[in-house]
Amino acid sequence: MFGLFKPQTPITNLSPAEVHTGLQTKTLLLIDVREPSEFEAEHIEGAVNLPLSRLSSEALQTAIVAAEARTVVMQCLAGGRSAQAVKACRDFGAAVDHHLQGGINSWKSAGLPTIR
């Protein structure tokens, strides 16, 4: 009974500055898990839209292949959905454990640009 629950690695919270640097140096792939209408209204340049509501093992695998050797980072509005996306990725068996802490809200609060 005690072996049923495996400890999981904590989610790695990245700051807006860390994500900005990773996007500039092309060392990370930012996946925005908000709905398409939210993404179209405003998003971070370089982000790929893969809504949490449509997240599947196949869609994730396609994104990971596109990421090549880059670290996959999940992002949403405030951090809740991206944390759920990390958990879903782990459930699919993917080694995804990074997200933008505070989401696009923290990005904008840091004075970083978005595309509208």
Automatic annotation (TrEMBL):
InterPro entries per record: Rhodanese-like_dom, Rhodanese-like_dom_sf
Signal peptide (UniProt feature, chain positions): none
Residue ranges constituting the Rhodanese domain according to the UniProt record: 24-116
SMART domains: RHOD
Pfam families, alphabetized: Rhodanese
Gene3D superfamilies linked: Rhodanese-like domain (3.40.250.10)
Ranges in a coiled coil: none
Protein name: Rhodanese-like domain-containing protein
